[in-house]
């Protein structure tokens, strides 16, 4: 019997899946972990204690659950948070905590430095937009400027998937999808480092080798086999970031397919047949050859609902501990009885700054319109609605470019909340679909691992492995009610931006 393993590392948990040759799920393993916030705007993971520890624990757990012979696993794929910056030494030992994706906004000075060095027009030519906190180049420069002792020892600057694949195989790689987008413009279009553009930032040899996502990066080493339980010699694909893997798992396989990932943050991923440039969003080549994507990301979603849970719903946590009922389910009690607009409340969800469409790491969260009649249920509903308003801002941008959204597939932890998905459908006026299999990125990793050993001949064959679950159609009456609050949401940030920057 043939088996494939996929493991994904996210912001607050890692998840792995073992599937058989028909892609029936044999075992699933989930390991929660924390995220460090040592200073305002700084968000980090301990790569050894979180990324590698979780991978090893999950791999061993999947093997223990299934009881299969590790030698029957034909290939392994790993994904992790995208756009991370992790300097490692020649033994692949982390030299500092990993600087996380766009939620980490420490490199503001470096973004300004690079914009002054190259000029706004050149930056726009490279990125299609200004520099933002999702770009790795300013983060590498931050290490060089602020921690020269770390920079001098850095053998490679890796992302999460690059690090895990290197630990498994001993080879430093990054997939073309992640490398050319997140490390732009340090690589040429052919995937080789650009010596001239690397000059002010890093040495070309400090960058990983660019390969296709489904290329075989190498094989599990003896040391990795001892730690993971995998068989020595098992093929390992290059892998990619969590959003790319989740998009594949959700069936984003051709232009017009879209993934709406609602996790710790929101990530939107629309496959297109052409490269679309807009200052407010991102664009790059997609994993599937010959296609592109227009994408966007907020800094909060699950991180914000987690804050509400911890700070305003301590009793829900206590009830969860006592009864086993999920705290987030408890927090939804009474929410459905509150009409659209939360009794005249509009929230800006910028609790950790914001990426697209405003690209402002200094933005602040705002709860606008409070009265003595409002309850914490109103506040929480308004927070959920704010994520829908933020998503809708991006949908409007996609429509401006006549980019068809033929199929919107929602993924991530937010799909466990049907009322939230209905709010998003009502706000955007679009049908929101969900996959029947909600495992997510790790399932996409397993699919791409199979692609890596040519178990499938094309990405289109993966469509047969994906079945749809519930879908949520917009209610015309509620959609019309939300238009008023969307307009207020759109105006609220520009009206308060300067005040927020003074805080």
For CATH, the homologous superfamily of the largest domain is named as: ATPase, nucleotide binding domain
How large is the radius of gyration? 22 Å
Total domain units:
2
Mean of residue pLDDT values = 97
Could you tell me the number of beta strands? 22
Structural class: alpha+beta
Give me the CATH architecture of the largest domain, please: 2-Layer Sandwich
Low-confidence stretches: none
Biggest β-sheet: count, sense, barrel?
A: 5 strands, mixed
Widest β-sheet, arrangement of strands: 3-2-1-5-13
Q: Total helix count?
A: 17
- The residue fraction in helices comes out at 25-40%
Instruction: Give the percentage of residues in beta strands.
Output: 15-25%
Task: Characterize the structure shown.
The protein is of the alpha+beta class and 503 residues long. The chain has 2 domains: 3-244, Nucleotidyltransferase, domain 5; 251-439 and 473-503, Nucleotidyltransferase, domain 5 (2-Layer Sandwich). Helix content is 38%, strand content 20%. The chain is built from 17 helices and 22 strands. It has helices at residues 47-66, 108-118, 120-127, 136-146, 148-153, 160-169, 176-182, 195-198, 222-228, 242-249, 302-312, 314-323, 327-331, 376-400, 418-428, 441-452, 476-501; strands at 3-9, 13-20, 25-32, 44-45, 73-80, 86-88, 98-99, 156-158, 173-175, 209-211, 216-219, 235-237, 240-241, 257-262, 266-272, 282-285, 292-297, 346-348, 366-368, 407-411, 432-435, 468-472. A 5-stranded mixed β-sheet has the order 3-2-1-5-13. The radius of gyration is 22 Å and the shape is globular.
């Amino acid at each position: 019997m043939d088996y494939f393993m996929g493991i994904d590392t996210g912001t607050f948990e890692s998840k792995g899946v073992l599937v058989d040759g028909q892609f029936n799920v044999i075992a699933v393993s989930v390991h929660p972990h924390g995220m460090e916030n040592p200073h305002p705007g700084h968000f980090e993971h301990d790569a050894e204690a979180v990324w590698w520890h979780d991978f090893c624990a999950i791999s061993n757990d999947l093997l223990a659950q299934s009881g299969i012979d590790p030698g029957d696993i034909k290939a392994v794929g790993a994904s992790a948070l995208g756009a991370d910056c992790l300097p490692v030494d020649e033994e692949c030992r982390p030299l500092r905590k990993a600087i996380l994706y766009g939620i980490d906004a420490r490199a503001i000075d470096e973004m300004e430095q690079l914009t002054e060095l190259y000029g706004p027009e050149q930056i726009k030519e490279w990125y299609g937009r200004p520099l933002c906190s999702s770009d790795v180049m300013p983060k590498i420069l931050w290490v060089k400027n602020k921690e020269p002792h770390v920079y001098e020892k850095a053998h490679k600057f890796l992302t999460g998937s690059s690090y895990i694949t290197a630990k498994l195989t001993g080879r430093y790689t990054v997939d073309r999808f992640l490398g050319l987008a997140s490390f732009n413009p340090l690589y040429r279009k052919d995937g080789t480092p650009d010596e001239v553009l690397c000059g002010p930032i890093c040495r070309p040899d400090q960058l990983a080798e660019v390969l296709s996502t489904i290329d075989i990066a190498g094989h599990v080493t003896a040391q990795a086999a001892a730690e993971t339980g995998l068989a020595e010699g098992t093929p390992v694909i290059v892998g990619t970031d969590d959003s790319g893997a989740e998009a594949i798992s959700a069936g984003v396989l051709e232009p017009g397919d879209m993934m709406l990932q609602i996790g710790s943050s929101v990530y939107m991923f629309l496959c297109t047949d052409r490269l679309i440039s807009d200052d407010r969003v991102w664009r790059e080549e997609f994993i599937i050859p010959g296609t592109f994507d227009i994408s966007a990301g907020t800094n909060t979603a699950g991180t914000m609902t987690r804050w509400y849970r911890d700070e305003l719903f301590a009793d829900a946590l206590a009830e969860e501990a006592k009864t086993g009922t999920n705290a987030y389910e408890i927090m939804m009690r009474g929410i459905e009885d509150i009409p659209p607009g939360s009794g005249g409340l509009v929230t800006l969800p910028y609790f950790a700054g914001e990426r697209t469409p405003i690209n402002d790491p200094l933005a602040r969260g705002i709860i606008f319109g409070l009265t003595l009649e409002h309850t914490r249920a109103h506040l929480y509903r308004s927070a959920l609605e704010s994520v829908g308003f933020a998503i809708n801002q991006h949908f409007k941008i996609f429509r401006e470019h006549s980019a068809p959204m033929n199929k919107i597939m929602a993924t991530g932890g937010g799909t466990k909340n049907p009322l939230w998905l209905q709010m998003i459908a009502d706000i955007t006026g679009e049908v929101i679909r969900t996959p029947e299999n909600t495992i997510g990125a790790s399932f996409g990793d397993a699919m791409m691992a199979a692609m890596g050993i040519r178990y499938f001949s094309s990405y289109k064959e993966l469509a047969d492995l994906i079945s749809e679950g519930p879908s949520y159609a917009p209610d015309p009456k509620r959609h019309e009610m939300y238009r008023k609050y969307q307009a207020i949401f759109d105006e609220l940030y520009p009206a308060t931006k300067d005040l927020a920057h003074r805080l």
